[in-house]
Amino acid sequence: MLELGQVVATPGVLDVVPGDCVLNALNRHASCDWGVVCEEDRNRNDYAAKHDELVHSAYLAPDGTKFWIITEWDRSFTTVLLPEEY
What we know:
The structure is a single chain. The protein is of the alpha+beta class. Helices cover 35% and strands 24% of the residues. The chain has helices spanning 11-16, 19-30, 39-50; strands at 6-9, 55-60, 66-71, 77-81. The chain has a four-stranded mixed β-sheet.
């Protein structure tokens, strides 16, 4: 299980992604299910989760909106955001 620290979400993601979808994605992220990332990113995240590095996952809302979840290397906080907000 990945430690998330303090969880924050940007106003943009809160405006367009349903809350239950965000919560489901956070649970998946914490369980090391990286969502819709390529194999290379999946492998990088698997390594990063075990070696205190930044972890970045991606998910799709029911309407197809892509959003990201990023957990900092020190696990102090996790941010849910839209790609254009990065």
